[in-house]
Design goal:
The protein folds into 2 domains: 183 residues, Rossmann fold (3-Layer(aba) Sandwich), CATH 3.40.50.450; 116 residues, Phosphofructokinase domain (Rossmann fold, 3-Layer(aba) Sandwich), CATH 3.40.50. It contains 11 helices and 11 strands. It is elongated. The chain has 323 residues and is of the alpha/beta class. The structure holds adenosine-5'-diphosphate and 6-O-phosphono-beta-D-fructofuranose. The site of adenosine-5'-diphosphate has 17 residues, from helix 4.
């Protein structure tokens, strides 16, 4: 194998650039020619493939987003789309691929490997921290810090007006960002998809907190919660309590942008190095993860078969400290 490719796919996350840099430089140091596939699997199908060298990734470790751009690509879900993508890689002589993305991108890589023999290694890049086979995904720490900062800022205005706020954070179907931000921001209540909670219980807890002398209150809602989005939950609470004048704030895509934290830069750098080294050693159909500070390799399917979830202790700590 002489040529490898690198791509980012699915939702972007802070730290993707640090991962690209690590892949390119490790590849170059190992004697490979490295190619960047732009716009994820869509760019692969379109042949949007460019040579990269050590200098082409200068000055990006601190930058959010992805210099390779990313995309969601329906055509790649079909065998024909993957065949066209494999043809483009073959035209460029690319035999190994590092895919930086979430479990959807891994599913695509797994099929590319199974159907066309391409050697693929995945790096977990998503703010959601919802991938099995790794304790942390690239981007999660940065997104969490942005969510925490949002909670801090809203606390100032909530305190000033003695108000109840509902803050919605991202995470798709995973409450990792929500529960961690609730501890870090000292929220009064947190709603996550991993836990069934009815509106009456939430209302009772808020009333109890008010009776204990809390003037401002913050409820964090993971976007995937079954009770609904932050606006719906605020309305449901208003319907059955005296909290008629609450405010809602949705942190949204701010969590996906901006300069990555030191943790994410280091995680991305280590994972990028290990991904290329794994390819050099003949690994394929594998993903890189971090477990107890060590880099580990697991089959790509670990990402969706062993779904990552947070410890219930985090919810317990969040609520215990909210008295
Ligand atoms: P993420 O990688 O962040 O989970 P998506 O789920 O949107 O993001 O997946 C990114 C892309 O990966 C999709 O747009 C598609 O091109 C490809 N993909 C996702 N799931 C599959 C699948 N089951 N088979 C083939 N390709 C897939
Ligand atoms: O997977 C990352 C993520 O930001 C999720 O937290 C969120 O549900 C989704 O992507 C939003 O996707 P889009 O980019 O389509 O708005």
């Amino acid at each position: 194998m002489k040529r490898i490719g690198v791509l980012t796919s699915g939702g972007d996350c802070p730290g993707m650039n640090a991962a690209i840099r690590a892949v390119v430089r490790t590849g170059v140091a190992g004697g490979f020619e490295v190619f960047g596939v732009r716009r994820g699997y869509q760019g692969m199908i379109d042949g949007d493939i460019v040579p990269m060298d050590a200098r082409s990734v200068s000055g990006i470790i601190n930058r959010g987003g992805t210099i390779l751009h990313t995309a969601r690509c329906m055509a790649f879900m079909e065998p024909d789309g993957r065949a066209r993508a494999a043809e483009q890689l073959a035209r460029h002589g690319i035999e190994g691929l590092v895919v930086i993305g979430g479990d959807g991108s891994y599913r695509g890589a797994d099929k590319l490997h199974a159907e066309h023999g391409l050697r693929c290694v995945g790096l977990p890049g998503t703010i959601d921290n919802d991938i099995g086979g790794t304790q942390y995904t690239i981007g999660f720490d940065t997104a969490l810090n942005i969510a925490m900062e949002a909670v801090d800022r809203i606390r100032d205005t909530a305190d000033s007006h003695d108000r109840l706020f509902f803050i919605e954070v991202m995470g798709r179907r995973c409450g990792f960002i929500a529960v961690m931000a609730s501890i870090a921001g000292g929220a009064e209540e947190v709603l996550v998809p991993e836990e069934d909670c009815d509106i009456t219980t939430i209302a009772m807890r808020l009333q109890l907190a008010r009776s204990r002398g809390k003037t401002s209150m913050i409820v964090i809602i993971a976007e995937g919660d079954e009770l609904g989005n932050a606006f719906t939950v605020a309305q449901k609470v208003a319907d059955i309590t005296e909290f008629k004048d609450s405010r809602v704030s949705v942190v949204g895509h701010m969590q996906r942008g901006g300069s990555p934290t030191a943790f994410d830069r280091i995680l991305a750098s280590r994972m990028g190095v290990h991904a290329v080294e794994a390819l050099m050693e003949g690994a394929t159909g594998m993903m890189v993860g971090i477990e107890n500070q060590n880099m580990v390799l697991n089959p790509l399917c670990t990402a969706w078969e062993r779904k990552s979830t947070f410890s219930p202790d985090l919810l317990r700590v969040s609520r215990l400290l909210a008295i």
